[in-house]
Amino acid sequence: MTSVELEIILKAGKILLSSGAEISRTEDTMNYIARAMNFKDLEAYVSNRGIFATAKKADGTEITRICNVPEVDINLSKIESVNALSRRVTQKNITIEEIESELNQIDTMSDYSFFWRLVAYTLGASGFSYAIGSSITDSIIAGIIGLILGVYMCTIKRILNSDVLITILGSILIALFGNLFIHFNIGSNLSVILLGAMIDIVPGVPFVNAIREYSQNNYNTGITLMMGALLTCISMAVGVAVVQS
Fold first, then answer.
1. DSSP letter at 200?
2. How is the chain split into domains, by residue range?
């Protein structure tokens, strides 16, 4: 194994982790690519924020690489693209140069546009509010608040780096606008409006990944993900409590 080939395997793992993939999927994909390249001496340890990998060269010397994943931004398109690439690699109909080129293309793949993010925030809030029993009016209000939240979430990360503070301020924004709509007699049920809008910042992916890690006996990573998700939920509660009090 050469350092270039190890970098390719690490890059695939980093793209998966930074896009929100679970640890087990990342490890499996890295191992699939390594086996497809006829490597039997790859040892990789994957955590939710980094990858540690060691491999042996043909002359017996070892190569060690550490890959840091400082931020996770959910992108299912990148996860699916890397998975599709790994399937092609196992079929052995692609060269190392092609693998490296495609990984670079996936890594630089454009994220979801600002417009579609706002559409997702709006429909998510409105649809969930209606699903839990709100009226058409209340679900529309929840969608409007979700739209406002979407604008906030898409712009605030350029200013703040603290996820806890971002979540608290987002929850304050939701509760503030929800109470304003009720105050002006636009809407009737504050609870379903707030619940509908709050679904947009519920840490669903960390919860699901934490459960998957527990099922794979990765307890340390599972606890880390679960604690992060619980901290997000606490931050949401703090924001709403500040406004309601």
1. G
2. 3-107, 114-244
